[in-house]
Design brief:
Layout (H helix, E strand, L loop, with lengths): L13 E4 L6 H8 L4 E5 L2 H5 L2 H11 L3 E6 L8 H13 L4 E6 L1 H16 L21 E5 L11 E6 L4 E6 L7 E4 L9 H20 L5 H23 L4 H19 L5 H13 L3 H31 L2 H5 L6 H20 L15 H9 L13 H11 L1
Parallel strand pairs: 1-8, 2-3, 2-4, 4-5, 5-8
Antiparallel strand pairs: 6-7
Helix pairs in contact: 4-5, 6-7, 6-8, 6-10, 6-12, 7-8, 7-12, 9-10, 9-13, 10-12, 10-14, 13-14
Bound molecules: fe (ii) ion.
Fe (ii) ion binds next to helix 6 and helix 10.
């Protein structure tokens, strides 16, 4: 097994998964010395009654919910973070619980960073490579989608409205103390969102397993994630109320998030970021479209890793039937088949042409992709022409 000369791995503090996970947040926070929670979420979750499920569980465990803030937009910003940090201080809160998708959790990470460090503007911390912890503010993240893995990553992506750019704040101190997985919050996710976010998680796991910064621990998390996703994502799309499959997907997403947080991603994310920026293709959909094509491109450099991944992508009897020399190629086909069947069941097309992308933007997309940070750790050097060929194949 591959072992780098040096690597680091930071875990989420503690995983609470399944029955009673929500109820146990209060006792875990008590151990961390806090009892006054600021709860962050969004308007839709409030309307669906999900915020109340969370606050009831906190109160029944003995916490005081000193403030509930649900005005977090889908694309949160530095201004929102600064505003919430003021509310945190005014309410004399001593801990944060975030319930939502990537935007809510990333906003909460920003608020936590700001109240830990002190000050009133998150922008002060941009570009700071090494940030000390500051005051410890207990923080629990409860994801309501199974894809971003934000509850287990060291990154917070927050928009700077003034300059119209997305800022990345990277620090091990944005990792939540508690990653709380309760399938009740994902049961109402529509099939299309379930499919897109689930295939994003699969991409995190496959890129984390095979990129240049891979390490034995992230590979271990990645293979567990791939298996959970392969076994449960189709069920979540076909039978949304299946609680076991939903909880398994929440676990797969968290494990994939932790894997890529500790090893990075690669070409699929590089091109996906540019497609999102230029054509507004949703992130998970871009991943689903690009993953098989990019694996085909990387195949000669990733043969060993892909051959290994095949074990987790197909049933044991199918794996043993494939000769050693064909496993890598078979893995790409298995991922392609899997993504296609999940997408088809959810009513998604995996062609760029069906998703609002026209060929006249290819050059711009490719130019941005080769300058994207995710490409630095891709196992195969990639030129603009390579990206253009991949876009053409995905059209
Ligand atoms: Fe992603």
């Amino acid at each position: 097994m591959y072992l780098p000369t040096y690597y680091e791995f930071a875990n989420p503090g503690k995983i609470l998964s399944g029955r009673y996970a929500l109820e146990n947040i209060a006792s875990e926070f008590r151990l961390l010395g806090s009892s006054r929670a600021l709860v962050l979420s969004d308007r839709i979750l409030e309307k669906l009654g999900q915020v109340k499920v969370l606050t009831d569980a906190l109160v029944s465990g003995g916490m005081k919910v000193v403030k509930v803030y649900t005005d977090i937009p889908a694309d949160s910003s530095i201004e929102v973070v600064n505003h919430i940090a003021t509310l945190y201080r005014e309410a004399n809160a001593d801990s944060i619980v975030a319930l939502g998708g990537g935007s809510v959790i990333d906003t909460a990470k920003g608020v936590r960073m700001l109240v830990s460090q002190g000050g009133s503007d998150l922008m002060r911390f941009t570009g700071m490579e090494v940030l000390p912890q500051g005051r410890h503010v207990p923080f629990a993240a409860v994801p309501t989608t199974s894809g971003t893995g934000s509850e287990a990553t060291v990154v917070a992506v927050i928009k700077d409205d003034e300059r119209h750019v997305k800022m990345e704040f990277v620090s091990q101190f944005v990792l939540p103390d508690l990653a709380v997985l309760d399938e009740r919050f994902t049961l109402s996710m529509p099939a299309k969102v379930t499919a897109m976010t689930g295939l994003d998680a699969l991409t995190h796991a496959i890129e984390a397993y095979s990129c240049l910064q891979k390490n034995p621990v992230s590979q271990c998390y990645a293979t567990a994630a791939i298996r959970l996703i392969r076994e449960n994502l189709p069920t979540c799309v076909a039978k949304p109320s299946d609680r076991h499959a939903r909880l398994a997907m929440a676990n797969g997403s968290l494990l994939a998030g932790s894997a890529f947080s500790n090893s990075m991603v690669g070409i699929v994310h590089a091109i996906g970021h540019s497609l999102g920026g230029v054509c507004r293709v949703p992130h998970g959909l871009a991943m689903a479209i690009l993953l098989p094509h990019c694996m085909r491109f990387n195949l000669d450099k990733c043969a060993e890793d892909y051959a290994e991944i095949l074990q987790y992508m197909v049933a044991p009897e199918d794996y043993v039937a494939v000769s050693a020399s064909s496993r890598a190629q078979r893995c790409v086909e298995a991922v392609d088949d899997f993504a296609s069947s999940v997408a088809q069941a959810a009513g998604l097309s995996l062609h760029l042409s069906d998703n609002g992308v026209t060929k006249d933007v290819f050059s711009d997309v490719a130019e941005r992709a080769v300058n994207d940070g995710s490409l630095i750790v891709n196992p195969k050097a990639t030129s603009k022409e390579d990206v253009l060929r991949i876009l053409e194949a995905a059209f």
